[in-house]
Amino acid sequence: MSDISRKFDHLYQVISSSNFLNKKSLGGEIPFFISTYNAKEEISQQEAIRLLKSKLDNAGVTVLEINLYDIACSILEEKGGIERMFKVEKKKSKEKFLRALQSSLNIHQVLMPRIKELIEASNAKVYFLTGIGASYPFIRSHNVLNNLQNVAKDCPTVAFFPGDYNGHTLNLFGLLKDDNYYRAFNIDSIKT
Question: Which residue, of 17, 57, 138, 166, has the fewest CB within 10 Å?
Answer without folding.
Answer: 166
